[in-house]
């Protein structure tokens, strides 16, 4: 399975926001600069996270984005699905019934074994992401990472 580059962006941005004190907001520009990515493209992805209830946004000079809920209440799956959707990436086009080696329709009354296997793998992947929260990711980071993230992203008040 190959996910778009923007998935990496939102996962890192959400993880960075999870490292900040409650209520702290960070602008698109700050996040874009922090990760070296284009702000206009990132803004579109962050808006998706707001629409899906992962982030909240505030306007004004101190505005920006923050987590909509506690990091322990936001799964990695929620972040991924907010920008990539939740559809199964494997599509069976029944090629077993095509070409010189085509099976007859009578031999294909049961679902293709490959679609079953791929569906199980996709669900296992989703369950793994569902079981992992932003808090789990932050807890696994070396202590200097949250320290540096806070130092670089928190605006003096």
Task: Describe the model.
The chain is mostly helical and 157 residues long. It is built from seven helices and two strands. A two-stranded antiparallel sheet has the order 1-2. Helix 1 crosses helix 4 (76-84) and helix 2 (28-35) packs across helix 3 (39-51). The termini are far apart. The mean pLDDT is 93.
Index terms:
157 residues; Arc Repressor Mutant, subunit A; two-stranded antiparallel sheet; 7 helices; 2 strands; elongated
Q: Please give the order of strands in the largest beta sheet.
A: 1-2
What does the largest sheet look like? 2 strands, antiparallel
Q: Spans of 5+ residues with little confidence (pLDDT < 50)?
A: none
CATH topology of one domain: Arc Repressor Mutant, subunit A
Query: What's the CATH first level of one domain?
Result: Mainly Alpha
- Helical content stands at 40-55%
Concise synopsis of the structure shown:
The chain has 7 helices and 2 strands.
Q: What is the secondary structure topology, with strand pairs?
A:
Layout (H helix, E strand, L loop, with lengths): L4 H14 L9 H8 L3 H13 L3 E4 L5 E4 L8 H9 L28 H18 L3 H7 L3 H10 L4
Antiparallel strand pairs: 1-2
Helix pairs in contact: 1-4, 1-6, 2-3
